[in-house]
């Protein structure tokens, strides 16, 4: 083995030890970014959004994401409220894949499958606060995490960051970046806010109006793993190409919606979805660079005590998680989620809030 290779291995080993020690000793905090009457709170535990406050059509400020009052509750959470997701968001069938001739067995955490990065995905680690500007014209926070080779079974060391920033007017920008340092690896970063733009404590979202800019979905088998097909939504309850109430046909789907949509646009920053709540007048418009979006109607949020003691129930929120396609590592016809050393992974999401009276 050459001295250069030996030195590189030693440096990576030291980096791994330092990163591990840093994470163990890292403090968990809550950080607010604020612009007028628009504010977002984030914790570096799981790079989690814990609140999004903005006015309704009457000027009343409300929190439009589900969540908890304490960090302890986030640590015990199994619904991924507001959390960052990775190294690979969504599911990997059989918790395994083959890449460049090597078979990788991952940590299964949903039966035999992997969900949202495994038992200790990015939602369950303490991120480093790298930059933080609370106020001013462009308040933002950047969180970083070093994911070691072999973590949850994934190959290679990866450096990850997420930046939450407030833009004019009433815009929340979320930018995920990642670099594979020494091995090709799947990377599919997303996050999991549970949106109820009527207010987190306003009841269910079934009367909210939704439009999704996607004419196809990726159908699932009985274990919620994509079959590999890409099927049209026309003449199915999954068709939200035209605005319709979330609950208009939800009774035709067991439990509720939980499926990936293949977005139609080929533009870099794609229209994803628009949500409208008539009572509050709030509108949320989502654009992203990802090829897909997971639409989930909080089907398994049952008797969950949340902020202020409010108890969340099924369909009390909706999730629109922009992402690469689920289980893409096992479906060559899906857009690739493989990132090779020297290439930077980038996933940008823009939420624009407005009022419709």
TrEMBL record:
Its EC number is 5.1.3.3. The keyword Signal applies. InterPro entries: Aldose_1-epimerase, Aldose_1/G6P_1-epimerase, Gal_mutarotase_sf_dom, Galactose_mutarotase-like, GH-type_carb-bd. Residues 1-20 form the signal peptide. The active site is at residues 192, 321. GO terms for molecular function: aldose 1-epimerase activity; carbohydrate binding. It holds the Pfam family Aldose_epim. GO terms for biological process: galactose catabolic process via UDP-galactose, Leloir pathway; glucose metabolic process. Pathway: Carbohydrate metabolism; hexose metabolism. It catalyses: alpha-D-glucose = beta-D-glucose. Beta-D-galactose binds at residues 90-91, 192-194, 258. Keywords: Carbohydrate metabolism, Isomerase, Signal. Belongs to the aldose epimerase family. This is Aldose 1-epimerase. It comes from Nicotiana tabacum.
